Amino acid sequence: MKGIVFTEFLDLVEQKFGLEMVDDIINQSDLESGGIYTAVGTYKFSEMLQLLQHLSANTSISIDDLLLIYAEHFFSVLKESYPGLLDTYKDPIEMLSSIENHIHVEVRKIYPDAELPTFDVIEKTENSLVMIYKSSRAMHHFGLGLMNKTFEHFNSKATIKIEKIREDGTEVMFIINKN
């Protein structure tokens, strides 16, 4: 997992819960990296999972809800760092349907060894989108948060339903209907 995911996560934890919480979750975890991350480094997903689990335990916020909160933060980072990417699109359905064929291609130019989930478009209309998310990591709520922020970015609203294909959350169907 790329270091930017860790550095931005810890920035969010500091902003929302304070520096002491950052220290607490790092100290409560058994991290190979020692909790020292660089944006361009690569780290094990198990470290992110430990940080999330300890943050959840310390705040009584579910991991899924923490991933939603983190996705909102991460979207703002992407918006600030790569404004041209968002300006390419005029509509949230168009943008979300191009994750695999455009956005992930651009991400791989910056982070060639990034392990990204796949988003297979099953059905697309002007106002709806059905996609299958597949990942070795059950972070579909992070994807949901990014989708929510995508609609907000385009001053639009949608109903997004998640259906688990695999019980562990490594494969889910997103059913998106623009309101």
UniProtKB/TrEMBL annotation:
It comes from the Bacteria. Residues 2-161 form the Heme NO-binding domain. Signal peptide: none annotated. InterPro entries: H-NOX_domain_sf (IPR038158), Heme_NO-bd (IPR011644), NO_sig/Golgi_transp_ligand-bd (IPR024096). SUPFAM superfamilies: Ligand-binding domain in the NO signalling and Golgi transport (SSF111126). Gene3D superfamilies: H-NOX domain (3.90.1520.10). Coiled coil: none annotated. Pfam families: HNOB. This is Heme NO-binding domain-containing protein. It comes from Flavivirga aquimarina. The lineage of its organism: Bacteria, Pseudomonadati, Bacteroidota, Flavobacteriia, Flavobacteriales.
